[in-house]
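Q: Structure tokens for this one, please.
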Amino acid sequence: MLPDEYQEKNEPEFTNKVATTFTSHEAPDGSVLLRGPCPRCGHVTEHLISAGVLRRASRLWSRRADRELPPDEDEDERMCCYCDGEHSGQPDGYRGCGAFWSLKVDRT
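A: Here is the predicted structure, written as tokens:
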């Protein structure tokens, strides 16, 4: 399928692309806005990670560090394309091309 067609899809390289192309901006309340080109369609998309999610992740990491446990998959922030581009086959009321991926939340 072409990137201009809607398709719910996750590819391993989506995460790598997002990790190198998105920028992050921290708001005064501690939330973080991630912004960049969708790894599938290339349109600009944004994802807000609330301060509460970041605080919870920090507490989990602290507890794991104390016990020297590896991080688990629950710490991933799931994201998807929310671009305003038009994609054929896009369901009514949906935004984006259907691409999705996960990133580890890291405040360092």
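A few notes: The helical segments are 12-21, 51-67. The longest helix spans residues 51-67.
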